[in-house]
Design brief:
This protein is of the alpha+beta class. The chain has one domain. Helix content is 29%, strand content 20%. It contains 8 helices and 10 strands. A 4-stranded mixed beta sheet has the order 1-8-2-3, with no helix packed on it. It has a two-stranded antiparallel ribbon with strand order 4-5. A two-stranded antiparallel sheet has the order 6-7. The protein is globular and about 45 Å long.
Length: 200
Amino acid sequence: MSSTNRCSAALATLLVLVSASLSGCSSGTDAQHPSRHADEAKPPKEGLGNIIVAGRSATGSKASGISKIPYQRTYTDGALYAPITGYRSMAFGTSALDSIYDDVLGAGPSHPGRAPSDVVTTIDPAVQRAAADGLRGRKGAAIALDAQTGQIRAMASAPSYDPSVFSGLSSADNDAWVRLTSDKDMPVLDRALRDSVAPG
């Protein structure tokens, strides 16, 4: 299995479930015909789908005013959850859950006729914060698993970054992207999934 596939598989284990509109995704026929889903009668969700942590949205969205990219991603505690949510930038693409589940979370011309859905994670905010605090001032990663279920309770990478600083199209977004991607400490690198480091 390639490194990218291993990373995608590991990140996908963060999910307990994806919202009910995905119930037919395992069946090719139903997945191609969203009208067969029971929740079709619900009004379509505005904006992007959210990444949910402990029942609360770690992400949001706002209207961008640009028809080709109608929504800009917003973040709650962006630096804390960046190793999980990744980023969704109008200029620089997507990463982590926002990339893996783009077909679920996305909206607009790239996903015509389909309302976005949320992605629910197994992350525990208190454990996530403890992991991030434990790494403060260091370079490294920490992952906490539930020994009984295998669910991921925390996935931290340090140093981290706030994806909201480059989610738009302004010159400030571009400057933030350049600053982060040229930083020798590589804050945009998800060390929990994409870096090979000896434990300890």
